[in-house]
Amino acid sequence: EPEVTQTPSHQVTQMGQEVILRCVPISNHLYFYWYRQILGQKVEFLVSFYNNEISEKSEIFDDQFSVERPDGSNFTLKIRSTKLEDSAMYFCASSGWEGNQETQYFGPGTRLLVL
Amino acid sequence: GESVGLHLPTLSVQEGDNSIINCAYSNSASDYFIWYKQESGKGPQFIIDIRSNMDKRQGQRVTVLLNKTVKHLSLQIAATQPGDSAVYFCAENEGYQKVTFGIGTKLQVIP
After folding, report:
1. Are B107 and B13 in contact (CB under 8 A)?
2. A–B interface: beta-carbon pairs under 8 A
3. How many CB atoms lie within 10 A of CB A85?
4. Which chain A positions have a beta carbon within 8 Å of B44's beta carbon?
5. At CA A46, angle to CA A42 and CA A48, rounded to 5?
């Protein structure tokens, strides 16, 4: 069964440093997403991406965040200057079109710890 | 603001019994709902979905019920097993855009 994969599984970084989180969506999917989950809280939408551009972003997704699909398989989330409050699980998701419904499939997540 | 939320934060169920997890939503324009299961340290896993033109949908051991009149959604798990222990989220999928998650209900299965 195809699945979304993410690397690394864990990332520890110093405040102010840049991090890049990587995702490989399901191969025939066209829509890509990033979400985050702060420990003990609900999953929050960050951004959706389609046709090589952002289609929607939340208020969390400010100028320090960017997304890119550098090639035909990877989808990345870059945080330019990490803050302590960026510590969270980051989930990538992708979706296609199954019949009349659309389902987002989530990766296992990257746990980011900013010190 | 409009949101998707859950009634019960924790539910304990005896193994073999049926579980019912409830969810209330406030956006009357919502037309597509999903239940996700999240095990510790893992990403949300799709369980079952339902569109607003349906009242009920069944999967393997799971049933989702939708009551649009009172904006209520429920997930029923038959013959609950220890492997069902997880946090369950109801969510609203807004087309090709974001999934809006509720707070989550933790299901604990007692052996």
Report:
1. yes
2. 61
3. 9
4. 43, 91, 106
5. 125
Q: Is A19 left (phi over 0), alpha (psi -120 to 50) or beta?
A: beta
Going residue by residue through chain A, which has 115 residues, state the pLDDT in tens, using 9 for 90 and above: 779 999 999 999 999 999 999 999 998 888 899 999 998 788 999 999 988 999 999 999 999 999 999 887 899 999 999 999 999 999 999 988 655 457 889 999 999 999 9
Closest residue in B to A45 (Cα–Cα): B98
Q: Write the single-letter amino acid at A104.
A: Q
CB pair distance less than 8 Å for A106 and B45: yes
DSSP-based three-state secondary structure for A80: coil
- Distance (Å, whole) CA B90 – CA B73: 8
Euclidean distance between CA atoms A34 and A32, whole angstroms: 7
What is the radius of gyration, based on Cα positions, of chain B? 13
Max Cα-Cα span within chain A: 45
Query: Does the CB of B47 have a partner CB in chain A at under 8 Å?
Result: no
Mutate which of A100, A106, A110 to test chain B, going by most B C-beta atoms within 10 A? Answer: A106
